[in-house]
Structure formats: structure tokens, C-alpha cells
Amino acid sequence: MEDELIAQINLYSKKSKAEGLNDSEKQVQQELRKEYLRRIRQSLKSELDKIDIV
């Protein structure tokens, strides 16, 4: 699932550089990026929650 998300983000990024994106594609790109960041933050929070300070 993570690989698919990254692949979609990369696809929109390449298309943006090559020919530009229309408004709906820009919106999808932003949503994909937000979802990716949400997952990264969730993963980081999960890892930090596992740490015990002694």
C-alpha cells in the first residue's frame, strides 16, 4: 500500500514537471501528499510511544 502511494505521488510529480497538472490533478496530488505525511507521522508516533526512558 505504501509503495502504491509513493508511486502515485511520483507519477503526479513527474507529470507536473513535464506538462503541468490541471486543477483536479493538483488537488489529488495534495491529498496524496497529505496522506503520505499522515502515515509518516503515525509511524513516527508509534515508534516514539514504544520508547521507555529510564
Supply the CATH architecture.
Orthogonal Bundle
Count of strand segments:
0
Largest sheet: none
Low-confidence stretches: none
User: Roughly what fraction of the amino acids lie in strands?
Assistant: under 5%
Whole-number count of domains: 1
Average per-residue pLDDT, rounded, comes to 95
Terminal Cα span: 36 Å
Would you mind describing this structure in some detail?
- The chain has a single domain (1-49), classed as Helix Hairpins, CATH 1.10.287.
- It is built from two helices and no strands.
- The chain has helices at 2-18, 23-49.
- Helix 1 (2-18) runs antiparallel to helix 2 (23-49).
- It is elongated and about 55 Å long.
List the helices and strands and how they pair.
Layout (H helix, E strand, L loop, with lengths): L1 H17 L4 H27 L5
Helix pairs in contact: 1-2
Provide keyphrases for this structure:
single chain; 54 residues; mainly alpha; Helix Hairpins; elongated
Summarize the structure.
This is DUF896 domain-containing protein. The chain is 81% helix and 0% strand. By secondary structure, it is mainly α.
